[in-house]
Write a structure and sequence with these properties.
- With 164 residues, the protein is mostly helical.
- Helices cover 78% and strands 0% of the residues.
- The protein is built from 7 helices and no strands.
- Helix 1 runs antiparallel to helix 2.
- The longest helix is centred in the middle third of the chain and has 26 residues.
- It is found in: Cell membrane.
- It is a multi-pass membrane protein.
- One of its GO terms (molecular function) is quinone binding.
- It catalyses: a quinone + NADH + 5 H(+)(in) = a quinol + NAD(+) + 4 H(+)(out).
Length: 164
């Protein structure tokens, strides 16, 4: 039963992801992205990573999508704006996606078939184990990321600051 739910949610995530890319209306595209975020959160929960699933819902499906909808309302996109795009930029986008696809297929070709253990560890994905791993083995990258985020915030404040 769990595998069936997993495949249904994964198919929903893939379908809504494709609809996000190919939708003509930007509002429908953003709504399909919300569905994608919720289905990814469901996949996290099915994989016994409850903390990541809840963070996915709170941060991405909540805060980031509100930001996307706000930007969409501020831009006020019309169909006339879509036709003004040049064919060269569309060609560059398709060409870049093709190169990415070839790279991904090359990476999959080099993979060996591996067998996975059938038993699952009930402690995988829990907050306690994630905290131990984050603050023991990955403390330096974690602190460097926090310094980069702090530098970005200070830079944004300085750029947005009005001269008095």
């Amino acid at each position: 039963m769990e595998q069936i739910i997993f495949f249904v949610v994964a198919l929903l995530a893939i379908t809504s992801g494709f609809y996000f890319v190919f939708a003509k209306n930007p509002l429908y595209s953003i709504l399909s992205l919300i569905i994608t975020f919720f289905s990814i959160a469901a996949l996290y929960i099915l994989l016994n990573a409850q903390f990541l699933g809840i963070v996915q819902i709170i941060v991405y499906a909540g805060a980031i999508m509100v930001l996307f909808l706000y930007i969409l309302m501020m831009l006020n996109l019309n169909k006339e704006d879509e036709s003004k795009k040049q064919n060269l930029s569309k060609f560059i986008g398709v060409f870049t996606a093709g190169i990415l696809l070839v790279g991904i297929l090359g990476a999959f070709k080099g993979l060996n078939q591996t067998t996975f253990a059938t038993g699952t560890d009930s402690g995988v994905g829990l907050t306690k184990n994630l905290g131990k791993l984050l603050f023991n083995e990955y403390v330096l990258p974690f602190e460097l990321a926090s310094i980069l985020i702090l530098a970005g915030i200070v830079g944004a404040v300085l750029i947005g600051k009005k001269d008095l």
